[in-house]
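#random but structural
TW: two for the price of one
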Amino acid sequence: MKYLVMLCDGMADEPLEELGGKTPLEAAATPNMDRLAKVSEIGMVRTVPEGMAPGSDTANLSVIGYDPKRYYTGRSPLEALSIGVDMAPDDVSFRCNVVTLSEEEEKYEDRKILDHSSDEISTEEAAVLLEALKEGLKRDGYEFYVGTSYRHLLIWKHGSVVELTPPHDILTKRIGEFLPKDPLLREMMEKSYEILNHHPVNEARRKNGLKPANSAWFWGAGTRPALKAFEELHGKTGAMISAVDLLKGIAVGAGMQNLMVEGANGGLHTNYTGKAEAAVKALTEDGFDFVYIHVEAPDEMGHQGKVKDKIRSIEWIDEKIIGPVTERLSKQGQDFRMLVLPDHPTPICVRTHTADPVPYLLYDSTKNAQGAASYDEKHGMKSKIREEEGHRLIGHLFEGE
């Protein structure tokens, strides 16, 4: 028996008037998910423990089987593992987004975050901007590291964990009340705008109709994590397929193998087909027991408020990953169980994460369950809710209860 998780980041949503009261998942054409739904267990699961922030960090830890209340030490340290930063026990890691701030205001604190991803800036462009930040914000005990796209890293040696606000939570809001209380972190963010706003990379982006990545934004502070090995926890060898440093960092911390897919970029136009092919190869040729396929696109489209593109991302997951993976494994006579779910909702109406339960589909190729007409939030709610048990759901996948 082989095992898969198809993690559709931020896919769950709320009913939208423009979709006739449907959610993007309901509105999307998903023939493969709906075909599986009829013979699968459909339900709801709470992936974010009560009292914890609804981030992809806590939620994905939960789905992979790690209780966030026990293992979570902050988001950025998980990304540091992916980048290969060797953190000391008293080092503090921060996510450093390169964001788009409004420009018409005179004072930095009066500006607004227009885009937390700067139009999903390429890693190549962002790396040039990070070099400018490294030079212009040089401070003893502070080091910048390049990540992926808009997602980068600041390490504060012998630092302190401070409370900071995720940029995607305050889109279009005045930033003043959300700036760091720590005076040096705030000073660095303010100076980053001076360094980046008219940088040649950003001037070129403006000419090409793209938003400038004109400020750093620090958030997600935490200390070095210590995850129990996935194989020790579950008795299965595991592989991760993701373009996002957070997920790759979780895999590093859990002793899972990161599988690189050319063209996978964390955006809408990622290499869906390549991820499907890598998953099948990992299970049928490379001997892995378990593969975690992560696609960031629905979450990014939710943050950007793009309804049609969120629907399109869901349809491409269905068409280019779920369909081919199930077909190829079945043709090869491979028994498998597959769990399909989001990590958390990213509703279009709020453009950020919420902690509401999410729908899941659990398919077993060796037996039929009494399922539902389709896989979506509405049909999930009609079934049982595994409240507060998100980190136990993967055991349900492995045990086939």
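TW: number two ↓
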Amino acid sequence: MTVTAQSPARAPHRTYSRWTALVVLCAGTLMTVLDGNIVTVAMPAVQSDLGFTGPGLAWVVNAYLIPFGGLLLLAGRLGDLVGRKRMFVAGLAVFTVASVLCGTANGQGTLIAARALQGVGGAMTSAVVLGMLVALFPEPRAQARAIAVFSAVGAAGGALGTFLGGALTQALNWHWIFLINLPIGLVALLAAVRVLAPEDGEGLGRGADYPGAALVTGALMLTVYVIVGSGDREPITTLLLAAVALALFTAFTVRQARAARPLLRLRLFGSRLLSGANAVQILMIATMYGFQFIGALYLQRVLGFGELLTGTAFLPAPVVIGVLMLGLSARTVGRFGAYRVLLAGLVLILAGMALLSRAPADGSYLADVLPALLLLATGFAAAMPALTGLAMAGAREEDAGLASGLCNTTQVVGGSLGLAVLSVLAASRTEGLLARGAELVPATADGYRLAFGVGAGIAAGALVLAAVVLRTARRG
């Protein structure tokens, strides 16, 4: 099977292997995934240069994640209307321009606004990739191989971003973690225009639920804002903002029930398997993303690692994830079943976070970080494909695209909320100890231990939820 680079009416004709098209799709996805994590190691440099507060620093990440997660469903729907290739190419263009704006930012507001624009471009690109991939590989065996490659790129890319962020920050400066996207984005953009087959969408006349998209995006953004800034506000203000966020979620639900063409069909949540899998995913991704953020800060601010050494310290994770996902995950799920493999993966994630919750102020990488890192990477490589399979098994065939978009959205929601909760807890504990006269490094380490302990509790919640809900849902 080949992919036509130009429409049949144009000459000359030129064809490309569908595996070449997969490379282009993976390249676009890798760039957006990397950017969600590449800033982690550069956080201290960004904070020092632009004067961010501790809780405010989390917005450098959240400003990207929230529009990314909030717009995935709308971007997927628009891709159906205008054509998935058009949406993918436009997303790459927006993302590349926003990356240049991030790299040239010299103030907090400019950087956060540019990161939000990056999130918009990332949502436009990511929302349509899985649909394009499934169309390219309709045969079950080829599709399974393609999805395995795509999943490995996405999973390993997050951890690989930590390494690249450290290398670029130390070798040059933090601006280059964004500017490097300019040549990559231009190459990916040109390749996408030439390699991906054009397709006609349903037409904008079919409509999309723009009010619903505005409601859910506003609700998600306000929720994370409430969590991130809770330590700097009066409790009554936090409660009022939380009530507004809940009202927006409620209005979104009502809107979806009444809209002629809803952004998210509520009947999807009638599947206990789909709903349960997405709930487990929120908790699991919250744990993993919190680990990446807090773990990088622990290495730098407690163990004294530089940016490059911190990035190198995280490098075993993408190696383990890539090897296990490509070589073992499909066969392991086939032999033991997705449910058992998921539980085993969650147990490993819980064990890794529990080990980190004991990391001392005078710890070492080999004894206190690396064993936990390997447990977390192995657990994630086992749990993620199994969880995705369970979620998609709970959707009807006609709802597969929406179910895929929902899975992407809950990943981003889980990551942003996990980052917000754990970063606030760590900062609050450290500030409290410093106010009582504690030394900086021990106080900082204690704050991170608290965050890791709460992360272990979140992982335990994911394990219990999966063991109870997914077991009964699977039987049903």
